Amino acid sequence: MQRVTVLSGGMGGARFLQGLLHGIRSRSIVGLAPQAEVTVVANTADDIWVHGLKVCPDLDTVMYTLGDGIDPDRGWGRRDETWSVRTELEAYEVEPTWFGLGDRDVATHLVRTQMLDAGYPLSQVTQALCRRWDTGVRLLPMTDDRVETHVAVPDDASPSGRRVVHFQEYWVRLRAAVPAEAVVVVGLDDSSPAPGVVEAITEADLVLLPPSNPVVSVGTILGVPGIRDAVVATKAPVVGVSPIIGGTHVRGMAEQMLTAIGVDVSAAGVGLHYGSRSTGGVLDGWLVDEADADQLGALDAAGLAARAVPLYMTDPEATAAMAAAAIDLVR
């Protein structure tokens, strides 16, 4: 296999990609060519405009992680970050104070915004930004169009009993600590795949769905008109990795998002939500953690090749082994 395409969110997808690239470079993944080319289609529905700047959290997390610029403790933002700009904005009482831009990070957003204002599409801007970081992958936004995820939360003061907040406010300010009653992705139905996205899927030798959020990361990528059809139509095997281990997410808010759309919070629940390509879904194979081995029967009955393997991404070697297991499942 020479061409691999990964549909990725932020932290979970970026860490999976680290392991995948480590496995390719160390030649520890049987079935992948030593010079395999990796294309990443990244979620952009988390994007937000802050202080006049276009912020793309998932694109940036993948770019910084693979370019060795990520803060390893937080899993997002820049290493050795300082916060003078944020402090000064707070002193001016400029909202939103709950979303901080680091001094190093803000340079990325300034360049991105200037290029967008000059008329460049997000895909070309992303290509330009990645030249600095030497990521080892081709990084594509899922779309050049503006798409933003919003979450409906309870609000007793509202006549409807709920209010809608941007996904970043739900995650950063509210810390996903209140129930999510609905997920609304504004602009998704009118969007189109960014240049190269459909071809990256249909011409791939392997398509991987990493353990990113199945609703607001992989789900929004698949929701761009034309992308799900490309995944269904590709001749490449499509294998996913469960973000749920032992009935909950390892990190993030997959549990809240799955509950909001009525999907069972379990490894099998997510696999069945994606569905088998033999029955109109998007998967050929699905990896679950060893803790969820008792769910393999339900997945097999639904036409999904499934296997239980260790899924904690403790280091690049462990993550490379996950990628190797994904390939072995469909070889």
- The percent range for helix content is 25-40%
Mean pLDDT equals: 97
Provide the CATH topology.
Answer: Rossmann fold
Distance between the termini: 10 Å
N-to-C SSE string, H for helix and E for strand: EHEEEHHHHEEEHEHEHHEEEHHEHEH
Describe the secondary-structure layout.
Layout: E1 3-8, H1 11-25, E2 37-42, E3 48-50, E4 53-55, H2 57-66, H3 84-91, H4 105-117, H5 122-133, E5 138-141, E6 148-154, E7 162-166, H6 167-173, E8 182-186, H7 197-202, E9 206-209, H8 218-223, H9 227-233, E10 238-241, E11 244-245, E12 248-249, H10 254-260, H11 267-274, E13 285-288, H12 296-301, E14 305-308, H13 316-330
Parallel strand pairs: 1-2, 1-9, 2-5, 9-10, 10-13, 13-14
Antiparallel strand pairs: 3-4, 6-7, 6-8, 11-12
Helix pairs in contact: 1-2, 1-13, 4-5
Structure, briefly:
With 331 residues, the protein is of the alpha/beta class.
What are the key terms here?
alpha/beta; three-stranded antiparallel sheet; Rossmann fold; 13 helices; globular; seven-stranded parallel sheet; 36% helix; 18% strand; 331 residues
Can you walk me through this structure?
It is built from 13 helices and 14 strands. It is globular. The chain is of the alpha/beta class. The longest helix is centred in the first third of the chain and has 15 residues, at 11-25.
